[in-house]
Amino acid sequence: MLEDKDLIADLLPDVSDRNAAFKFAMSFDGYKHYGSFEKCADAAKSKERATLADLRNELFFEARASRHRGDDDFLLVYSELLPLIRARLLDTT
Hints:
The protein is mainly alpha-helical and 93 residues long. The protein has helices spanning 18-25, 30-34, 37-46, 52-69, 74-90. Helix 4 packs antiparallel against helix 5 (74-90). The longest helix has 18 residues, at 52-69. The protein starts with 17 loop residues before the first helix and ends with a helix.
């Protein structure tokens, strides 16, 4: 797992690299972070996006759902979240 404190903007994969984007999504364990599947799902579906953990959880949950469905729809979510993740990482305030 890649901890938030170890994450830097330069490590964020491009949306066009499906495998790297999926690996990044899986570098956060929303089930462990929130304590259960249900809490992870609720947090992801809320789209609160107030913290880096919120953003990473939403991506994690969508990537898991995509894997279950057998599609790459998580890349659409990643493309939406990527600028938000990058901004959160670059925010020094």
